[in-house]
Specification:
The complex is a heterodimer of chains A (about 220) and B (about 150).
Chain A: E1 2-9, H1 12-28, E2 31-37, H2 43-53, E3 60-66, H3 71-77, E4 83-87, H4 96-103, E5 113-117, E6 134-140, H5 147-150, H6 152-156, E7 160-164, H7 176-186, E8 191-194, H8 203-215
Chain B: E1 2-3, E2 27-28, E3 31-32, H1 36-55, E4 57-67, H2 74-85, E5 94-100, E6 103-106, E7 112-114, E8 130-134, E9 138-147
Parallel strand pairs in B: 4-5
Antiparallel strand pairs in B: 2-3, 4-9, 6-7, 6-8
The chains are: A alpha/beta (about 220), B alpha+beta (about 150).
């Protein structure tokens, strides 16, 4: 038996496609954000509020991933920006090939901001680079403040954590100070914003983050 | 709307029939709820087939390094890997997993250390200015081949 050394990543093919996507985004001036969270934390609502705040001429597009249904695409399409649903048919995450196919029918230089809503899941999307410039993890206050410790791999790769549903804080035993501490333990450099998509609190900070980090367009 | 049937899943081994072991897995609608370890196992087997063809040999074992913060569960990966290999021409094929700890390096005193209990401060000089040194790995290390 011969041992052959093999120094490469297991998801080499995904990483290669993600690198192609990233190069394409840079060439065309597209800023890409990958949103990850558990199901029901409010990613779609956050995107709805985000799209509702944009001027009609803003060159923004959305890809939204789910295992089944195009409910989210229908919700998001109401705001007049291009939206495509990716139904994974069982897979618990988006990968770079799905994003590449979904983008094929759009003019690559017509998008300044691409928002990708990943499949609701705090584990599986972590390993899959989609060519994004920034990764946002959404955590809602109904989920419990220890999620960053339970899912450190996901929070460790976040550029921004959005703490959502803060309007519910009076009704749930969620300690914001602990949540912030746990997030910083697994990713000391991460930015954190608190929002409520229901009342609109904090949305201006989130929108400023998009403009500052991802670029005003 | 873009649909992905099972066979269209990238990274997955499209030509592998689901093994009987998977029959009892959770279903969502009509599709099996595929954990990402299944996609990852599929990618590994694609690489095994490629190496096998390149060396005109049977791959007997594949070694991988999995970091503590890779987001990959070793036992799930092993379950998926074995399910995909079972009763195929890839068998026998062993999976050898080396777990790598989450490590940080101190920017001030250059000390490397394991992160334990989520503490990323330097145990030597106490600095909070540390950076990740390892733990996100999801890499092949080697394959063991036998000439056919």
């Amino acid at each position: 038996m011969t041992r052959v050394p093999l120094e490469r990543k297991v998801l080499n093919e995904n990483d290669r496609l993600a690198a192609d996507l990233r190069q394409g985004f840079q060439r065309h001036g597209t800023r890409c954000v990958n949103l990850i969270s558990s199901p029901g934390s409010g990613k779609t609502m956050l995107l709805e509020r985000t799209l509702a705040s944009f001027e009609p001429g803003r060159r923004v597009a959305v890809l939204t991933g789910d295992i089944q249904t195009d409910n989210d695409a229908q919700r998001l399409a109401r705001y007049g920006f291009p939206v495509r649903q990716i139904t994974t048919g069982g897979a618990c995450h988006l990968d770079a090939r799905m994003v590449t196919s979904a983008l094929a029918e759009w003019q690559p230089d017509a998008i300044d901001l691409l928002l990708i809503e990943n499949v609701g899941n705090l584990v599986c999307p972590t390993s899959y680079d989609l060519g994004e410039e920034a990764r946002v993890v959404v955590l809602s206050v109904t989920e419990g403040e220890d999620k960053p410790m339970k899912y450190p791999a996901t929070f460790n790769r976040a550029d921004l954590v959005v703490l959502n549903k803060v309007d519910l804080l009076p009704y749930v035993p969620f300690r914001m100070d602990l949540a912030r501490e746990y997030i910083r333990r697994v990713q000391p450099d991460v930015e954190i914003v608190e929002v409520s998509c229901t009342t609109g609190v904090g949305l201006d900070t989130w929108l400023q983050w998009i403009d500052a980090r991802v670029g005003a367009c | 709307m873009i649909g992905y049937a099972l066979g269209g899943l990238s990274e997955a081994a499209a030509d592998c029939e689901p093994a009987p072991l998977l029959a009892g897995r959770a279903m969502i609608g009509e599709a099996p709820a595929i954990m990402h370890e299944m996609s990852i196992a599929g990618s590994m087997l694609e690489a095994v087939r490629a190496e096998s063809a390149r060396h005109n040999a049977h791959v007997m074992a594949v070694g991988v390094k999995i970091g503590e913060l890779s987001g990959v569960d070793s036992e799930s990966l092993r379950f998926c890997f074995e399910a995909l290999v079972l009763d195929t021409d890839l068998a026998p094929l062993a999976l050898q997993i080396e777990r790598l700890p989450w490590r940080h390096r101190c920017r001030r005193c250059d000390r490397d250390f394991d992160v334990q209990e989520y503490r990323t401060e330097c145990p030597q000089c106490g600095s909070a200015e540390t950076e990740m040194a390892s733990g996100r790995e999801l890499e092949f290390a080697y394959m063991e081949i036998e000439e056919t």
